[in-house]
């Protein structure tokens, strides 16, 4: 006789859900959102910088002029007129695409889920930067893919390391299904793939017959408005491109998209329809009107300025408060700084202490599949105002300095 509800379900779960655990970010949210805690943990866009009156006007226009259609089901591939606008958004970044190749998804997150669903059987290999985006790792884990990390440095993914990994895998008779990469203002590392490396990577991709999933939520959020050639522009047939409106408009609309060659696109549309029939037609109409009628690049510039100011505040305070033996990336855009800790400090162990000092971050371990990253942490500068960021970094800096003194005393090292 089963006694508890847990027992009732436990032997009925699908095999693939066995390894599923709540992300470290989720577990943190409960504490990190308390008002006394400065959260440098979450990656929430600063939606207060959005022109809400303009969003309201656009929404009203949609209801007035196309209400019945917008409140109806839509097609599985997504609204044709929106797909045209998304192609314009990509063109602003130099990413080539046609509306026909685009599939609208529930944020970039669903795009990653659908790609994993399409390509990954249990035990398949996926390559990803080390560290990589926690949401992508979660999606790959759901389909029981095995993630092999390829290191990155300040210039992004290391081509030599990618080549060595591919050769090592090939010698064991293994071949990855695809390489998942975030070339611009990477989450969580905050670095971008250099121009030179993009060319090197394109060459390796061709030579090793590799498929690439290029995830680009932050490309337009370069602090100087600089653009880098997308991998899709270098090796178009080998790239499935993922975009999102979450960082340049609003994550609440839940609009992302995939760009894929025709045969792949058709399969993705079938998977999309099986998942949710179609994307919210209403938010697609709103987004379409936004790009058709609003100075949207000006809005992107406003976001850029907010994030640039906050990033500057974070970097200045890191210089002032962090022990010099810590190293951190200097982002040129996006939301994140990646901090490497000196020997002896463990970001996971320190988290409880940091929370009691009223500052939150994400331990590096969240960004690696199957271990690694305890010597690093992610700080985000997107959400709190500059003064709060400074305060949070100051609190963390004091904690790290104290902890380091302790560690050095134990190991007889000089601070
Ligand atoms: N990819 C990366 C690298 C991200 O950082 C995010 C958001 N944190 C996403 C995809 C997904 O975002 P959304 O589903 O809101 O488009």
Q: What key phrases describe this protein's structure?
A:
14 helices, Aspartate Aminotransferase, domain 1, 46% helix, alpha/beta, eight-stranded mixed β-sheet, binds 4'-deoxy-4'-aminopyridoxal-5'-phosphate, four-stranded antiparallel β-sheet, 415 residues, Aspartate Aminotransferase, domain 2
Binned strand content: 5-15%
N- and C-termini, Cα separation:
61 Å
Reported for the largest beta sheet, the result is:
8 strands, mixed
Helical amount among residues, as a percent range? 40-55%
Number of domains: 2
What is the highest CATH level, the class of the largest domain?
Answer: Alpha Beta
Q: Could you tell me the radius of gyration in angstroms?
A: 22 Å
Low-confidence segments: none
User: What order do the SSEs take from the amino end to the carboxyl end, as H and E?
Assistant: HHEHHEHEHEEHEHEHEEHHHEEHEEEH
- Outline type: globular
Which structural class do the helices and strands define? alpha/beta
Please tell me about this protein's structure:
46% of the residues lie in helices and 13% in strands. The chain is an alpha/beta fold and 415 residues long. The protein has an 8-stranded mixed β-sheet, sandwiched between helices. It is built from 14 helices and 14 strands. The chain folds into 2 domains: 13-50 and 298-411, Aspartate Aminotransferase, domain 1, CATH 3.90.1150; 52-294, 3-Layer(aba) Sandwich (Aspartate Aminotransferase, domain 2), CATH 3.40.640.10. The termini are far apart. The model has no long low-confidence stretch (mean pLDDT 94). Helix 4 packs across helix 11 (281-293) and helix 12 (296-321) packs parallel to helix 14 (386-411). The structure holds 4'-deoxy-4'-aminopyridoxal-5'-phosphate. 4'-deoxy-4'-aminopyridoxal-5'-phosphate binds next to helix 5.
């Amino acid at each position: 006789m089963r006694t508890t509800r847990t027992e009732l379900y436990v032997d009925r779960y699908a095999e693939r859900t066995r390894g599923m655990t709540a992300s470290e970010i989720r577990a943190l949210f409960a504490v990190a959102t308390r008002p006394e805690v400065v959260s440098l943990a979450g990656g929430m866009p600063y939606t207060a910088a959005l022109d809400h009156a303009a969003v309201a006007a656009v929404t009203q226009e949609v209801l007035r002029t196309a209400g019945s259609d917008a409140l109806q089901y839509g097609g599985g591939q997504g609204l044709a007129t929106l797909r045209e606008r998304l192609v314009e958004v990509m063109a602003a970044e130099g990413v080539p695409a046609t509306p026909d190749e685009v599939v609208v998804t529930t944020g970039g997150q669903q795009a990653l889920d659908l790609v994993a669903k399409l390509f990954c059987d249990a035990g398949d290999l996926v390559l990803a930067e080390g560290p990589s985006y926690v949401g992508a790792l979660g999606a790959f884990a759901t389909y029981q893919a095995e993630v092999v990390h390829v290191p990155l440095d300040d210039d992004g993914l290391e081509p030599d390391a990618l080549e060595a990994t591919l050769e090592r895998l090939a010698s064991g008779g293994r071949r990855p299904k695809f390489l998942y990469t975030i070339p611009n203002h990477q989450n969580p590392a905050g670095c971008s793939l250099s121009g030179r490396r993009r060319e090197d990577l394109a060459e390796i991709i061709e030579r090793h017959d590799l498929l690439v999933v290029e995830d680009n939520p932050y490309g337009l959020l370069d602090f100087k408005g600089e653009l880098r050639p997308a991998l899709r522009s270098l090796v178009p047939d080998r790239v499935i491109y993922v975009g999102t409106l979450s960082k340049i408009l609003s994550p609440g609309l839940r609009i992302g998209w995939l760009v894929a060659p025709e045969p792949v696109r058709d399969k993705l549309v079938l998977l999309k329809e099986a998942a949710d029939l179609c994307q919210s037609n209403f938010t697609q109409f709103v987004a379409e009107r936004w790009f058709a009628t609003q100075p949207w690049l000006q809005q992107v510039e406003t976001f850029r300025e907010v994030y640039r100011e906050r990033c500057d505040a974070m970097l200045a305070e890191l210089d002032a408060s962090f022990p010099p033996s810590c190293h951190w990336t200097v982002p040129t855009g996006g939301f994140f700084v990646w901090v490497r800790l000196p020997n002896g400090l463990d970001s996971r162990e320190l988290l409880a202490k940091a929370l009691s000092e009223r500052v939150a971050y994400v331990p590096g371990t969240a960004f690696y599949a199957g271990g690694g990253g305890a010597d690093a942490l992610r700080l985000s500068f997107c959400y709190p105002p500059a003064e709060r960021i400074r305060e949070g970094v100051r609190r963390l800096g004091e904690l790290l300095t104290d902890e380091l003194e302790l560690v050095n005393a134990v190991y007889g090292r000089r601070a």
